[in-house]
Amino acid sequence: MEKKVLSGMNLAEIQQMTVELGLPKFTAKQIVDWLYRKQIYSIDEMTNLSKEARRKLSEHYVLGRASYLKKVESADGTEKYLFPTAKGTVETVYIPTADRATLCISSQVGCKMGCKFCMTGKQGFEGQLTAAEIINQIYSIPHFEHLTNIVMMGQGEPFDNTEQVLRVCELMTASYGLAWSPKRITVSTVGLVPGLKRFLVESECNLAISLHFPLPELRAEWMPAEKAYPIQRLIDQLKEYDFCRNLRPGEARAGNHQRRLSFEYILFKNINDGEKHAKALIRMLKELDCRVNLIPYHTIPGAALQGVDEAKMKAFRDYLTHHGLFATLRASRGQDIEAACGLLNTAHQQKNNQQPS
Length: 357
Ligand code: SF4
Known about the structure:
The chain is of the alpha/beta class. 31% of the residues lie in helices and 18% in strands.
């Protein structure tokens, strides 16, 4: 009989499991503590459980934790980790700054969305990650204890794997789990509406929308998901929700709503960097409490696209800001190790794939 995976189970499921295995009631809380508060790699390390309890657990379950296969370090301090999963390998990026330690995690092996500027899009879809495989990326990096933020912006479209992604949000924020504030977690999507709607109801984590092209025809050309889920329709739906207000410099109003909404915008030379694009973006977002993150583009093989220089990025930001749309520049990190935005791809590494323990 194939053993089940403990990691990724919520408290109610673990309580049910202890009943089924005939374990004392209090062991459920002990198991959850080991799973979500400590970095262990085997059931045997659950030392406050009796030997008999560990034996019963091991008979039916595995922990579901896996060490990374490889780590690469960038000159700027960014680190990229390669993790094994049942469907192939995935990449996870650790981005330290002076006041933050952010981890960018993957939700799928490859991706179905086919965005033409993205290396993961070129890889194609190879499989869904389980909640255990997603959360393993968080627990199994050496910096786990020091992480301040999680962004689900690695490989894959989170709302094409909604059930598992929502489960990870629950485990990260539940009092029995990591008890993180949902404000420290951001999930990024191209805008798959069914999953997004569930996320807005079932989670309080921050939301980031990969917008990139404010003109629908242009967006459909580069991001096929636009055809099924038009961005304008999505934005009209977002207006029905109450998002956190981003205070502009000198502004005094209270920013006290539930979560932050941001839009990701990679600037491509002569494609989406003109005044008409800035104007369309302002028109599109002006009624939302949101921010725009402007991201530098890194050329990928086979894509006829170029990034813009820093002066152009600043000018674009200033235009948005002067017209009332709060915008920030995101620094490029980890480009030398292909860890920067849009560069993650594990297709060439699948031969070395290993299964989680
Ligand atoms: S940008 Fe995101 S959604 Fe688009 S192909 Fe890449 S990983 Fe998938």
